[in-house]
Write a structure and sequence with these properties.
With 103 residues, the protein is mostly helical. It is 59% helix and 0% strand. Helix 3 runs antiparallel to helix 4. The chain is extended and about 50 Å long.
């Protein structure tokens, strides 16, 4: 499926899909209504929210991946410093780089 669709990055983003699923499931049950299929399913009323979460979380995942130049799933101070211009192009202005990194 990965090769047919050509979505290699999406298949590497399992944490994105897992977190989006966790955020979306049960969102329709906030009004005290019990899920018809149990707590581990996304129902039709929650599916659109799941797609929104996947898109938003995947964007953040891609931003993080751009900043993480060592590809070790961590951002150190040097990577953060090097990415300040890129982060600014995303609309986030950083004044004191070290203070922001440590916060």
């Amino acid at each position: 499926c990965r090769d047919v669709l050509g979505l290699h990055d999406m298949f590497d983003a399992k944490p994105v899909i897992m977190r989006a699923f966790q955020a979306a499931k049960g969102a329709g049950n906030k009004r005290g209504r019990q899920s018809k299929y149990g707590p581990d399913y996304v129902e039709l009323s929650e599916f659109r929210l799941l797609l929104v979460y996947i898109r938003q979380y995947f964007e953040v995942w891609q931003m993080f991946d751009d900043v993480d130049s060592a590809d070790d799933k961590r951002v150190d101070l040097n990577e953060f410093r090097a990415a300040v211009g890129k982060i600014a192009s995303w609309g986030l202005k950083i004044g004191n780089v070290e203070a922001e990194f440590n916060s």
